[in-house]
Specification:
265 residues; alpha+beta; Glutaredoxin; five-stranded mixed sheet; 12 helices; 62% helix; membrane; oxidoreductase; transmembrane helix
């Protein structure tokens, strides 16, 4: 049976280190591993004296606590971003290569851009001209992967986002994906299943085969695995770009995409 005094000491030390970290992060502008080790090795008297000093300072300057908490949150967010980025790099082959995502460009291009999008996403529609311009101006050096990410359907697999994504994959099987994709993204008004099929009929395709390809059960497995992997690397919204393993979240504009593309060239 553990002794209560020892348990109390064990619980106070992390709290002491946390308080000291908050204090030193603001006062000193940072906290090194050496400083943390030094704090952990201090004896009881030194710890008590430092605790009193910190307590007195915080009572006199209570506004420092929100600042310190903000600093620590920023560090935690950076650490989480680095963790997710590392995971995206490790799983890059799975992200950039799959049998269902339509691909435009040279398979051996030095830069691969993977765009996660939803056809009902207003931000994706707003960012659509960025993709068009990027392929127009730099298409000879880019392999562009269109990653279906139908996450806006409250209805689940029966929703319009899934329906449009399945249609896009089916259209890619007959060679007219990019123009079909453009028409879906620039469709005026609310996108619905009837509109998706009306757009498909504008193309010289075998509609029976088109519907058969849409109903391929393997597509749902693709959607599920795509969403699962995306969440593992921290992708929850659209559009999100992964460029040679580097993640760019949100519709940040053409310049932001181009900068990352050029950085990877």
């Amino acid at each position: 049976m553990p002794h209560a005094p020892d348990a109390q000491k064990g619980s106070r030390l992390p709290l002491f280190l946390a308080i000291s970290a908050l204090f030193l992060a603001i006062i000193g502008g940072g906290l090194s591993l050496v400083t943390l080790r030094a704090l952990a090795m201090m004896d009881g008297g030194d710890k008590a004296q430092l605790e009193q000093t910190i307590r007195a300072y915080l009572l006199e300057n209570p506004e420092i606590l929100p600042q310190a908490i903000a600093v620590l949150r920023q560090r935690e967010e950076r650490a989480e971003q680095q963790r997710l980025q590392s995971f995206a790099t490790d799983r890059w082959e799975d992200i950039s290569q799959d049998p269902f995502s339509p691909v435009v460009g040279d398979e051996n291009a030095p830069v691969t851009v993977v765009e996660y999008y939803d056809y009902r996403c207003s931000f994706c529609r707003r960012a659509h001209p960025d993709m068009v311009r990027l392929l127009d101006e730099h298409g000879d050096t880019i392999r562009y992967v269109f990653k279906q990410f139908p996450v806006l359907d409250r209805e689940g697999p029966d929703g319009v986002s899934h329906f449009a994504a399945r249609a896009a994959i089916a259209m890619s099987r007959q060679g007219d994906f990019l123009e079909f994709h453009d028409k879906l993204m620039t469709h005026e008004g609310r996108l619905h299943k009837g509109a998706v099929l009306d757009i498909a009929r504008e193309f010289d395709v075998d509609m029976a085969q088109f519907r058969k390809d849409m109903d391929n059960p393997a597509i749902m497995d693709y959607f599920n695995s795509t969403i699962q992997l995306a969440r593992m690397i921290g992708i929850t919204g659209t559009p999100t770009y992964v460029i040679n393993g580097k993640v760019l979240a949100g519709a940040q504009g053409y310049d932001a995409i181009l900068a990352l593309v050029q950085d990877q060239s």
